[in-house]
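Here is one chain, start to finish.
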Amino acid sequence: MAAAGETHWWYRSTRELLRQLIEPNLTAGREALHLDAAGGTGATGGWLTEHGPTVIADFEQFALQAASGDYPGYLAVRGDLNHLSFADESFASVLCVTALCHRMNPDPAAIVREFARIAEPGAVVALMEPGGKRLWRSHDDVTHTGRRFSVGELKAMAQGAGLEVIKATSAYSFLVPPAWVMGIVERGKAKSDVGRNQSGLGGLLSVLASLERRFLRRFSMPFGLSAIVIARRPL
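Its structure:
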């Protein structure tokens, strides 16, 4: 994952998607502090460092070292999503990508409530998780995924934490058919999506992702391989 973060089409496309959904809702100044929660190597959240100092909190020390090397604006903190030690109202934005799904996080709703606690009034809380409960495949096993989410479930967790939902949508709808097929073909095998198709079928998947992002500027997608909720802590 560390090697693929800058080159794999999915990471590149996801950075652009998150920028599109989050940046218009960032209202704090350059002195504001941001959080990339369980941000790994920074492959999806490193762009936040352009908006101000950004804490990257992750359990894996190697990931933190890789993130700090690639993004000098990161402030690396080794931490566990289940035991966040940050003070109330510390961050102008909180980003969490494909972490609530992990087996080591038994209560995702409790983690989202913690995100709401540490977000300052008006702060954006962005959640992106594997979607499509019936799309389980070998990649989920390799990456220690414990669950997939519907958009409705992510939205309910955000609202249950007292957050106001700005946008709730699926993404990567064009990956649903191949993911369904791969789930059947690779059943019982240990294969990850990260180590293959880095170019996205010669750029085709990047083009499809770009077209989908245009759609998502105005609408929400009813189905997809990812579930996304952009929310805000009330003022």
